[in-house]
Amino acid sequence: MMTLECIKQFGLPITWRLLSIAICDGYLQREDAIAYAIEQLEAGNGQIAVCELASTYPSEKDDISVLLKRLAAQEDTTNELEWRKLRAVIVNEALKEKKENCVDGLISLTELWISLGCPSDSPHVIQGQNNSIAPKDYYTDQNYDLLYEKNAKWLKRELEFLREIQG
Known about the structure:
Elements: H1 4-8, H2 16-24, H3 30-42, H4 48-54, H5 61-73, H6 79-95, H7 102-115, H8 135-138, H9 141-165
Helix pairs in contact: 2-5, 2-6, 3-4, 4-5, 6-9, 7-9
């Protein structure tokens, strides 16, 4: 499970919309939203919804969801942009440790991109999907190294793009 710290390490702005998406999709815990609300209070954000969120219990799932959506509605951002930020963090977490076994590594990368909905900008090539790569050619150390590197380059470009548009 990812944490708020995983997102913070990139220096991209954390938004209520990002938290809402990440919690709804199961990437973050409700405790992360509460902790962030407390941080915001300590930083001087005294909005009523922030105060309410900071004082909720993690078991109050519906209240947390409503408050996050209310706070997100006040932001000048889109679900698409916030999902791209979250996706970059997810890919980064997956790439932190390269698998020693090429079969495990390729399966892991494939599962990652399938879980992300196989977006059109994915750098990953899935064996047998829109290609005729034979398993004996796909599941090799050389192919794993190539695809791992393509994923790492994609992540670098995606983070550069996100940092550029976030100012």
